[in-house]
Amino acid sequence: MVSSLDLKYYAEYLPRINSISVCIQFHSFYTITGIKLDSANSILITFNNTKNETINLSHGVPSRLVNTDLFSSLNTNENEKERVMTVSFKLPSSINRGRGDNFQNRNDRSINFLMHSFNDNEIWSKKYLLQGNKNSQFCLSCAECGETIISSDKINKLNDMPSESWSEMMDFWHCHKPDSENGKNEHTFNSKRYSVLKPSKNSVIIGNYYFLINMKDFESLIIVDSIPICFKCHCQLGKVESDNKLVKLYKWNFKLNNKETFRPYYHSFNVLIDSINSNASRFFKIYDEKNDEIIRLVLWIFSFGINITNQSEGKIRENCLKIMFNHDLKFITENANEQFNNFEPLYFPSIVVEDLLQEITQNNNRLPQDLQHLNFWNIIIVNKSADELADKSAVVA
């Protein structure tokens, strides 16, 4: 006898039609014998007259609809081979829009998402490192052996990198520098000075995926053959920026306070958001830096700023990305010139590409089957908030 319901659900607020789309998947051994709006923000489902499940909505519905039976509204689809049943339906939103109401600005969070996705609550940003810690103390240890590499009591100053496109923006500014007071467009500054941000002594500059430090500021870090390694276990931690004698430490090689880790794929999503913000890009082809002739993955940022709920979260997630992807190498190769020629290329270390492929596959599997694919695209939903991305479950014994 089947005991597992294998419940998956997904609810998304659709601002353009002011409604909530709901999709529910479960094992076909079960039958829905009752489904109603339990409150303005939740649905109560009864399976086989005995098993009750509550689904939280991504947006509220009008209070007058509470206790409404939804059985007649269900669209059903059964996959007999995999013994999966899916039901879907739409509900009206509680937002009351009058005639001429500019809902694009009120309810479409894409503008808000673009403007605020690079805020100071990014994973392991200055604010993130200092908040919630007694006296703002923290340490970054080697993920391999636990040796402390950077301790806050040894740091004079923390600074967030304003953007990964900072140097390009500075180059643009210098190429278009306004005329000086004497009427001449004189470059009196050394432009090389502005091509990189350099931390002062015992300071750290924090990028999306790295920490930038001076080569000799931290004793637990040693340099061997131009590679920064852990003093204790000799694990490689990053790379040396040869032009300016700075060390770039990759966040995924560390643990925060000996427990919290930074997944390599976070870096790729940060770059995607940065590209959306700075270039308004929506289509990308991903390469491994070690082999820039093979496209490993193509991505289409389908929509952003959406509100969703699902079975893995159980609560509203705001400002999410809906991303289409394809990682079928045969399909990509056959269509590279025709379909993906104008996609923006992005290059990542192998560890980032492999972790990204693993994450998007797992993310796609969390959705009900009916929502996992659209034509040759696969679908994922990504939330950029720090509390979701940070992996706080990896605790050293």
Structure in words:
- The protein has 397 residues and is α+β, with helices and mostly antiparallel strands.
- The chain folds into 3 domains: 8-95, Immunoglobulin-like (Sandwich), CATH 2.60.40; 126-175 and 195-261, Metal Binding Protein, Guanine Nucleotide Exchange Factor, Chain A, CATH 2.170.150; 265-389, no CATH class.
- 17% of the residues lie in helices and 36% in strands.
- It has 8 helices and 24 strands.
- The protein has helices at 103-107, 110-116, 126-130, 166-175, 265-279, 329-335, 350-365, 386-389; strands at 8-14, 19-27, 32-39, 42-47, 51-56, 75-79, 84-92, 139-142, 148-151, 157-160, 203-206, 210-214, 221-224, 227-230, 238-241, 246-250, 254-256, 260-261, 283-288, 291-310, 317-326, 344-348, 373-374, 377-383.
- Strands 1, 2, 6, 7, 19, 20, 21, 22, 23 and 24 form a 10-stranded mixed beta sheet that branches. It has a 5-stranded mixed beta sheet with strand order 10-11-12-16-15, with no helix packed on it.
- Strand 4 and strand 5 form a beta hairpin.
- The longest helix has 16 residues, at 350-365.
- The radius of gyration is 25 Å and the shape is elongated.
- Mean pLDDT is 82; it is low at 99-120, 168-174, 183-194 and 390-397.
List the helices and strands and how they pair.
Blueprint: E1 8-14, E2 19-27, E3 32-39, E4 42-47, E5 51-56, E6 75-79, E7 84-92, H1 103-107, H2 110-116, H3 126-130, E8 139-142, E9 148-151, E10 157-160, H4 166-175, E11 203-206, E12 210-214, E13 221-224, E14 227-230, E15 238-241, E16 246-250, E17 254-256, E18 260-261, H5 265-279, E19 283-288, E20 291-310, E21 317-326, H6 329-335, E22 344-348, H7 350-365, E23 373-374, E24 377-383, H8 386-389
